[in-house]
Every structure is written in structure tokens, then in C-alpha cells.
Amino acid sequence: MYSEIQKIKNFPDYYSALNLPFGSSRDLIKNYYYTLAKIFHPDNKQTGQREKFEEIHKAYQILSSDNREQYDKVYIKVYTLKKKLSKEKETVLLSQDRIQYTTSINRLAKRGLLKTGLRKKDRSKYTGEKHDIDLIIFKSEIGKRILVKVPLVVRLLCPSCFGSDIHCESCSGIGTYKGTRLLQISFEPEQIVNNRIYEFELNRLRPEKFIHFKKKKFRIKIELH
Ligand SMILES: [Zn+2]
To answer: Does the domain formed by 1-87 have CATH 3.30.2170.10?
Structure first.
């Protein structure tokens, strides 16, 4: 048990080194790395910090390489264990009304952008917004861990035939079902920054093996109220 705890303590959290949540996209990792590297580079006389720079650099090396997959697997194990061992930090589970879809009918109507027959896919073009949801967080919740469960459209592999039987009665031979699943994402207190957008690669966050999200990337914008 002692060595387990030691292992957890020594496990480097490359995501938090870059101030990002687990599952962040490659692009976001790159952006954060370059931004932070500029700030902490030892040549920067005002804000340079060699130790911090090396930590960021190491984090970027791993998370931008093929080793990321392996690292992510261990990460999940370590953090599951860590959660069990440590007393839970105070966590706020956001209710569904704190999730605002940028392409929702209400939202478009409010901005006078509603056109009948406008396909959902095209809506983002009209709003000019690149993120999928706004997450409404109240100032009173600052300092707490925020948990959110976002319903997303998924394709589920047919459990009867696993997509292999064109005469399957369960899925009518289609091989998959359309369904929804809750995508669970948690933000650490220091990640709650107004107007910050986090981008997630959904295939890294799959709750079950036989699920495919319709989207590849999902962007969440933090909005403090
Ligand atoms: Zn089937």
C-alpha cells in the first residue's frame, strides 16, 4: 500500500502542468505549451522560471508524442486510485440548465438569427461561435471542483450482432443504434477562468468501448456569472 501511495505521489500530472483538463485536444496542448513556454522560458527576464519551464517542456514532449496513449492509460488508473484514497474535494455537479448550447433555437432567436429550415450544422456559421456549449458557473462556486454531465448523440454498436448480421432483429441490420450518452467532464478550481474555451477529443473520453460520438471534438466555454 505504501508503495502504491508513493507511486501516485510521484506520478507526473502533465495535464495540470499545462493547466489543462484530461482529454484536451492536441491543438489545445500545443497552444498552451507555446503560451506558457514563452512566459517561463529562462531567457525571459521578467517571468522566466527554469524549473517551471522544464516541467512544461517535459509535459509537452509526452503529450504531443505517441507515448501519450500509454501515459493516458496510467493517468486514468492513478487518478481513479487517488480519488479513492483522498477525501473528495468539494465538487459541484452542475444542473442541465447551466449548459447552454450555442446553436440552440432559443439562443439563435435571442440574437435574431433564427431562420426557419436552417440546419443545425449550419447554425454555428451564423452565430460565428466555434464552441459547442457555454458552461454557466456562478462566482460563488469558484474554488470548487466543477462536474458536468453533457448529453451527446452517439452511435452504439448493436449488442446482439455487433454489426455483423444484416438480418439482425435488434438493429434491423443497420449494425448500430442512435442514442445519447452523458459525457462527464470535471474541472479543477484553477481551470475555472472566465471566457476560457476547452477543447476535448471525444474518442479519448469514451465511457464505453462500443460508442462512437458523432462529433470528433467538443468545445466548452466557461462563463462566470
Ligand atoms: Zn444487430
So the answer is: no
